[in-house]
Amino acid sequence: ATAGRPPPRSPAGTGAATGVAGTPGWVHSVSLTFGLCITALAYTIGSKSGGQINGAVTIGCVAAGLCEPAQAAANIAAQLLGSGMGSGVLSLIVDKEADLTGGLGANGVGALHSPRQALLAEIVMTFVLMYVVLETACNSKNHENSTLAPVAIGFAVYLGHVVLIPIDGCSINPTRSFGPAVVASVRDNKDAPSRWNDWW
Question: Is the separation of the CB atoms in 108 and 172 below 8 Å?
């Protein structure tokens, strides 16, 4: 991450971050981009894959008995591939010199936070996201509200990013964080190891 301003990532989210990271109001701008992107994707692909574009959510669905392990493995493989492809396309659109994140939005623990704080924050906000998914999209008792589930999930993603961008760039989705680290490592060969320091 660039000197104390760890950015977020995902093709749309990191695309927004590469142009505004570090500027006034950028945290809310990028957080809203992520939230709206997830809302749109959940409405678009929810009927095809259950909207699983997050490895942490996929694992949570397995734990809740909502997804078979074999299907989860296939979903995670597709998520990793999608993350890499999206970041690859972004690297073709945004030159290294124009990338205000300094690494296509690869994760980085902020200068004012410790790895322990980042881990705790990620656990808390990933829990919030997973809880919202389970209660809005998966709970049969909320069937009447299920058409609004993507909106609630998008809000949860927005909240996660508002809290976590200053701490570690926000992941709450390890598969999405994978792509920027891979592509930035290839693009910035001499700095490649640093792209993986905080990927965990």
Answer: no
DSSP notation for 86-111: HHHHHHHHS-GGG-TTSSTT-----T
**Cα 78 to Cα 52, 155, 163, 173, distances in angstroms:** 10, 24, 28, 14
CA contacts within 13 A on the Cβ side of 135: 10
**Structure pTM?**
0.88
Alpha-carbon torsion angle 179, 8, 145, 128, nearest 10: 100
Tokens at residue 50, please?
């259950």
The neighbour count for residue 96, using CB atoms within 10 Å, is 13
Helix (H, G, I), strand (E, B) or coil at 77: helix
90-131 pLDDT tens trace: 999 999 889 898 888 888 899 999 999 999 999 999 999 999
Q: How many CB atoms are located within 10 Å of the residue 47 CB?
A: 8
Name the nearest CA neighbour of 6 among 101, 124, 99. Answer: 101
Q: Which of 114, 199, 124, 189 is nearest to 160 (CA)?
A: 124
CA distance 88 to 107: 16
Q: Which residue has the tokens 């792209």?
A: 195
